[in-house]
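Figure 3 (text version): structure tokens given as input.
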């Protein structure tokens, strides 16, 4: 049995599974950013023993635990490098902390987008395909490259950070244009300059309350400002996807995260059209672009898959 943990900027999840793509138990909670790292650790200290007890699993039955963390991590030291959303994580030895909480159960740590990509490669939309590139488009944008069922991690502190690629002459990064917070920020800036939009009515003039979901909703309702912001996001995404194909030419690009739930007509069809218009001609038709399959549990599935890989590798060396 394996334990998988997701620590994000807004979401906290813990799951149990056998590493075959099925969850035996799952707990989902909400992060309180104001409580920082200490608050998240306290939640895990309380939740993990309860989940094990409810599932009828003892700590001694756990082979390994895996963590998908919402920020850069260091493979060698198994520490968090930093979090861009929650205070207190800088250089924190998270794998060692969870190992101690579990009484010595081996624990492995990695970035959340990387482990989500691993999950989709093993159990989801990328099963049996390599290379696979996974992109999550939600409150932020992350990426993961999976080669023959293994996460590509560069020199050990991450890779495939597609959300931080500049996508226009102004040097704006993809995340600033196409993530949930990026969509909201782009629309808010234009509202504050006096452009008319039904978004003003949707948030009753309180522009700081604006969300990316409201921007895409207004775009679907025909609002000109929102459509302009969304089209700019699609152009930026197409630029980034074209770059992925030119550099890596993966067999498939899987897109997950909250923004991906906009579906075929709003996201995938116009994105594919834009990519087709600009893709490197010799690579045209070699990479397909599809939605993820594993939903909100994708990082938990990936953390469990990573834990299983870590345990099996250690056992083969023994």
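Below: residues designed for each position.
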């Amino acid at each position: 049995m394996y334990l998988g943990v997701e620590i994000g900027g807004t979401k906290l999840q813990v799951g149990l599974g056998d590493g075959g793509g099925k969850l035996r138990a799952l707990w989902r909670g909400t992060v309180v950013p104001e409580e920082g790292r200490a608050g998240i650790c306290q939640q895990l200290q309380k939740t993990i023993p309860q989940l094990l007890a409810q599932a009828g699993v003892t700590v001694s039955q756990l082979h390994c635990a895996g963590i998908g963390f919402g920020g850069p991590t260091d493979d060698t030291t198994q520490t968090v490098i930093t979090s861009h959303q929650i205070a207190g994580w800088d250089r924190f030895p998270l794998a060692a902390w969870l190992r101690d909480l579990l009484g010595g159960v081996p624990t492995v740590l990695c970035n959340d987008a990387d482990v989500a990509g691993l999950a989709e490669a093993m159990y989801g939309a990328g099963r049996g395909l390599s290379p696979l590139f996974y992109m999550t488009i939600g409150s932020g944008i992350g990426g993961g490259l999976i080669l023959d069922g293994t996460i590509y991690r560069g020199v050990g502190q991450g890779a495939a950070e597609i959300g931080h690629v500049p996508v226009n002459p102004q040097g704006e990064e993809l995340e600033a244009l196409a993530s949930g917070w990026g969509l909201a920020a782009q629309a808010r800036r234009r509202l504050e300059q006096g452009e008319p939009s039904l978004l003003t009515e949707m948030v009753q003039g309180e522009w700081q309350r604006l969300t990316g979901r409201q921007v895409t909703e207004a775009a679907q309702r025909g609002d000109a400002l929102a459509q302009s912001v969304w089209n700019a996001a699609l152009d930026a995404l197409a630029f980034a996807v074209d770059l992925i194909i030119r550099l890596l030419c993966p067999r498939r690009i899987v897109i997950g995260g909250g923004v991906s739930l906009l579906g075929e007509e709003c996201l995938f069809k116009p994105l594919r059209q834009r990519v087709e218009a600009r893709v490197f001609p010799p690579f045209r038709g070699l990479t397909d672009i599809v939605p993820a399959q594993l939903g909100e549990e994708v990082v938990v599935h990936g953390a469990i898959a990573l834990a299983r890989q870590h345990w099996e590798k250690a056992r083969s060396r023994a």
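The CA atoms of residues 198 and 223 lie 7 Å apart.
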